[in-house]
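Researcher: We plan to redesign the surface later, but first we want a full-length starting point. Tokens attached.
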């Protein structure tokens, strides 16, 4: 499957990755949770294969960036030693950045799946509460949730439905779901249902508590996001307006004394850096925005 920004396809049949399988096993030791992150993100790739692909992809990114820096410095009137030092100095930071970014990508995907489950679980739990309160048998409730449009929650309950239909007890099917899912709230929901079934407690009361817990969690997420957004807006204003303006002003003042001259290339670099940082902040805000 294609993974964004990974320039080497992480396929088990890639001949390059097969030759360096030993390297991948050593790299997995640096990030031992990679196997579980890939499984939670539903990425069907061996962990050593993904680690090797991440290594070579980061290597390509680092070499490409170093060549770009070498070309950029050659266009300026710099000392030869400095023209050689800057590309070499930029190689390792870029390499490690992309390498660990690639390795953490499955964890980001798994967290995104977990967040989607937590979002849709509130509506699914309310639906289950209404159905149980109406006297519908629990298997039929699971079947209706599986056939509804609750995103990954419905997908998980389709597996539960198929397990029960295949002869697995309801409690065992819920236990399998709690072990399989990445969502901590779906785990709590399963274990509370299991406890209620084993003790013979009222399922309606149990589901009432589950719905209240999920609603309180959503409110807490929204409040936390609002508090964090104020700080992010301040950083965005600093990067987009304050720092570029002050930086250009200082460079103009220094140019009067012959210390640093502001050139069209330097001005374009400041504008480009500000644009990239603004894009990163906007992407971060979009990623952190709770989808309730």
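Model: Full-length starting sequence:
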């Amino acid at each position: 499957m294609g993974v964004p920004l990974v320039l080497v396809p992480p396929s088990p049949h890639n001949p390059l990755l097969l030759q360096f399988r030993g390297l991948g096993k050593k790299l997995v030791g640096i990030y031992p949770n990679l196997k579980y992150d890939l499984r939670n993100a539903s990425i069907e790739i061996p962990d050593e294969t993904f680690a090797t692909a991440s290594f070579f992809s980061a290597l390509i990114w680092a070499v490409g960036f170093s060549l770009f820096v070498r070309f950029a410095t050659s266009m300026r009137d710099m000392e030869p030693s400095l023209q050689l030092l800057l590309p070499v100095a930029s190689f390792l930071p870029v390499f490690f950045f992309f390498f660990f970014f690639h390795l953490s990508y499955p964890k980001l995907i798994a967290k995104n799946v977990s967040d989607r489950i937590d979002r849709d679980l509130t509506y699914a739990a309310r639906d289950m509460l209404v159905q149980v309160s109406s006297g519908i048998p629990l298997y039929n409730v699971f079947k209706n949730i599986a056939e509804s449009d609750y995103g990954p929650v419905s997908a998980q309950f389709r597996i539960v439905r198929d397990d029960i239909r295949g002869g697995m007890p309801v409690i065992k099917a819920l236990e399998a779901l709690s072990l399989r899912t990445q969502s901590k709230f779906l785990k709590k929901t399963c274990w509370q249902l299991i406890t209620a079934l084993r003790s013979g407690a009222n399922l309606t009361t149990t589901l009432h508590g589950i719905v209240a817990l999920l609603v309180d969690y959503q409110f807490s997420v929204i409040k936390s996001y609002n508090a964090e957004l104020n700080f992010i807006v301040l950083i965005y204003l600093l990067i987009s307006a304050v720092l570029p303006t002050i930086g250009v002003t200082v460079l103009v003042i220094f140019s009067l004394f012959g210390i640093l001259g502001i050139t069209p290339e330097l001005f374009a670099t400041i504008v480009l850096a500000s644009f990239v940082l603004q894009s990163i902040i906007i992407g971060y805000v979009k990623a952190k925005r709770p989808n309730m």
